[in-house]
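Appendix B.2, paired examples.
Example (i):
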Amino acid sequence: MALLTPRPPDDRFSLKERLNSRKVGGTLLLLAAAVAFVLANTPLEPYYSAVKGFDLALPALGIEHMSIGHWASDGVLAIFFFVVGLELKREFVTGQLRDPRKAALPVAAAVGGMAFPALVYTAVVATSGVDALHGWAVPVATDIAFALGLLAVFGKGLPSAFRVFLLTLAVMDDLLGIVVIAIFYTSALELVWLAAALVVIALYGLCVNRGWNAIYLLVPLALISWYFMLRSGVHATIAGVLLGLTVPALPHRHRDHEISFAEDMEHDWNAISQGFALPVFAFFAAGVPIGAGDGGFLDALSHPVLLGVMLGLLVGKPLGIFLTVLALRRLPMFELDDNLNLKDVVALGILAGIGFTVSLLIGELAFRGDAGLVDYAHLGVIFGSVAAALVSIPVLRLREREHPLVPLSDDEAMLP
């Protein structure tokens, strides 16, 4: 059985096509998170915690004390990061990031949109006296599935330039988030294991570039590289990104159709990512009791880590994006698309404040070993992302009124 097969043109209503829709993916992610949040705040919480904390260690492979929750964040989420790697490769080779002039402003906005949330978080935590500055990166990410899903539902009438800007910004956000995880949240580095992982990833890249795409060849190589990366001390999901980046984004000269391996694999694995990996991760990451801390809900809501993360997403993210665009848009290399204006940039910034998936992961990595701070960080991500989503809906509707253009078709809305 081949891993990559040409896509039939008439399967747009199949399960795979529906799972590839940003709307469906975002809905599943939201439902999984909502169910987990409810379970964690009802009498069913002990059962939820027991499942999440159940140990699935593999001592024979050197994997000690690995709970189901950790398998979700360290293992299952690697599928999502593999899709991110494929998306990055496609964007750099054939997409918006290929043209420096088109990509310059969204890329700069992504950098500003990461710096300001980190500064907001640092300011809140530093003035509180709480020893939690190492969580500065928690509010820096944008959840591409949620953001594009909301745009597909509530911003259909906006110009395509709006979606392109958001997609480019979110993809760059993912890339920078991966760099942050690799540099700042890597435990003791084991160079031998890292070298072994890179060798296997290179072998995987050789296979896909030669057109050797059998599932029995590529999946074992991917699993081996993940295991070696896990043992190296680098977060294992980085293996997924690197594997995705090795896949060719141009059609193979010996193939009988014009779809590249990267597009084919992204189409196949994005359905698995949105239909399985992201909901599973969200289910085990978003189950946080509201009454975390001795003082209950009000104590939790006023905790500096929660406030820093929430304000970073809700205030820092849109402020960073807006001020960056405002400062650079007059420069030749940083021109804003003619179909967009500063009001659209405000809407983009608010939408980018939805920082669910990667922010939850960074929160877990930043405070691993301190369950209380992990809970506060996760609550901050949940509250901040939900608030950003709720604010973005009327803002998108208002922006639609000033853009009487042809809306995105359902096919366009389903594109990554």
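Example (ii):
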Amino acid sequence: MPHCWRCYGVVHDQVTARVCVEYFTVYHPDVFHTQSPTLLALGWGVLATWWVCLLLGVLLAISARAGSTPKASVADLAPKVLRLLIIMALCSLAAGISGYFLQGFGMEYYATGIPKRIRPNFYADLWAHNMSYLSGFIGGLVLCVIVWRGRVREALP
């Protein structure tokens, strides 16, 4: 299941790199030494998400398999994880649109070095990324609770 979240991160970054490549080239450190939106999205999609994937993957595995209650299988988890990824994408889209129109809204210091003409796109990326992390992390924790409670409920007579 952590691979689903990582794939989401890569796909998400493929979209946002085309909205504002400067989000990756100016706002982030020059780790990959490229200006290619595709390569930046591949690199950052993995580099920036591995730790969330690891943490949520371990927690979800514990929620699904630990203890003596009936175990949840990958087939049980897949639709729930897919639902979470769709919710994350929709939250990210809404935040990106909001960020585009609200722009800095008091957070202009984030856009240091970003040309004024592309700042709406930059803020769209910034807000989309932040919401993706927030909704993914909170949603992942909620998913763990749902899976655990489902197993406990299934074990009741």
